[in-house]
Amino acid sequence: MPPNTTSLIQPMDQGVIACFKKHYLKHTFKQMFDMLEENKQLTLRDFWRNYNIADALENINKGWQDVTLRDFWRNYNIADALENINKGWQDVTETTMNAVWKNLWPDCIRTDSVSLVEAANEDVAETIAVGRQLEAEGFSDLNLSDIEEYIESHDVELETNDLIELSVEYKDKEQDIEDALRDDVKESTSYLFTTPNIKEYIAMIQTAIDFITKIDPDIERSSFIRRGLQAQIAPYDLIIKERQQASKQQTKIFNAINILLCHCAHKQV
């Protein structure tokens, strides 16, 4: 490319990347909307807090009763992002890919090609419509400037202080999730949430990991799946370790009491 002209004539900088980002955002909004439409009664924490033996069988086939936007982002992972990235690229049309060559190779442009401005306006309108359906704070009044600000924010480099703040915020949220998980486990009275059942679940996931690693010839893909599954069972490993530690403490106390009783009995004799 000629010097200092890449951003002006490089095809991918003529609107394809921005177009893709809008499609990606649209599919993310749709995913939020579908989740909120499906779950309307209880939050995830409330569900487990009220879960007991009496209603265990009644609730076993029910999904999560309510998932807030905060819950959505808490559970939003790399696999979800990759799926939306894939959908976003699929929505970038052949017409768009043709139009971006206008400055670099004008002879290849079809006469019936829709302008990038028209295509972008349609995409933004659909994204705004989907976003407003969420009816949540910050979404009900979503407008064009919000979408443009979101797209442009990806081109702004974060300063050191911004990165430090994000790191601290991430650690705080991670700690909140761990604390909430411990609270939910302690408050749950479900007879199904036993140590043997948890170990059985972990063993099943490990079997799945071993199996997919064995049959998938794509090492990068199977490694990605393995890391994801291992991350999913990590909280349950923590529960097992905590219970084992508590059991050891109880055993030590019980043994100490036995020794003390034997010592007292020996003195009396």
How is the secondary structure organized here?
Layout: H1 6-9, H2 16-38, H3 44-49, H4 53-59, H5 69-75, H6 78-91, H7 94-99, H8 116-132, H9 144-153, H10 160-187, H11 195-215, H12 219-268
Q: What distance lies between the first and last C-alpha atoms, to the nearest angstrom?
A: 99 Å
The level of helicity is over 70%
Helices, by number, come to: 12
Shape: elongated
The average pLDDT value, as a whole number, equals 68
- Taking all Cα atoms into account, the compactness measure Rg is 27 Å
Number of strands: 0
Biggest beta sheet attributes: none
Note the run of SSEs as H and E. Answer: HHHHHHHHHHHH
What assembly state would you assign to the polypeptide chains in this entry? single chain
Strand percent estimate? under 5%
Sequence stretches where pLDDT stays below 50 over 5 or more residues: 11-16, 42-48, 54-67
Query: What is the structural class?
Result: mainly alpha
Q: Could you write a compact summary of the structure shown?
A:
The protein has helices spanning 6-9, 16-38, 44-49, 53-59, 69-75, 78-91, 94-99, 116-132, 144-153, 160-187, 195-215, 219-268. It has 269 residues and is mostly helical.
